[in-house]
Design brief:
It is a single chain. The chain is of the alpha+beta class. It has one domain: Alpha-Beta Plaits. The chain contains two helices and six strands. It has helices at residues 18-31, 79-98, and strands spanning 3-9, 12-17, 35-38, 56-61, 64-74, 102-113. It is elongated, with a radius of gyration of 15 Å.
Length: 116
């Protein structure tokens, strides 16, 4: 995966990969109220083995990081509120843990189901 962004100082450069950011997004989303699971981004993803960053795409842009995540939400909850909460928590945690600017967090609710 390509580097998300490099942070430079007089002592050197720190490069944070998109995979690291995706791991942060996955953990934050999984801890968010109402999230049952991450959803694959494409139909072929359902055939592949489960992995923590399934359904997450991170792209570095000049404006900051653009994060897309696909989730499954618990049935019976207000989908708009769950999506808003996920978006704000993910943006906050990525910025707090990496120091990188987040330009956008797109939350795609792909399914609803009862939690197990």
């Amino acid at each position: 995966m390509e580097a998300a962004e490099a942070i430079s100082s007089p002592l050197g450069t720190i490069t944070i990969s998109n995979e690291v950011v995706a791991q942060i997004v996955a953990r934050t989303a999984a801890e968010s109220y109402g999230v049952v699971a991450m959803a694959p981004r494409a139909a072929i993803g359902k055939l592949l083995p489960e992995r923590p960053t399934r359904g997450i795409a991170v792209k570095g842009t000049p404006e900051g990081l653009r994060i897309d995540l696909h989730v499954v939400v618990e049935y019976g909850l207000n989908l708009a509120e769950v999506g808003t909460t996920i978006r704000s928590r993910v943006a906050y945690e990525v910025t707090r843990l990496t120091g990188l600017r987040v330009a956008a967090v797109e939350v795609h609710i792909d399914d609803v189901r009862r939690s197990k």
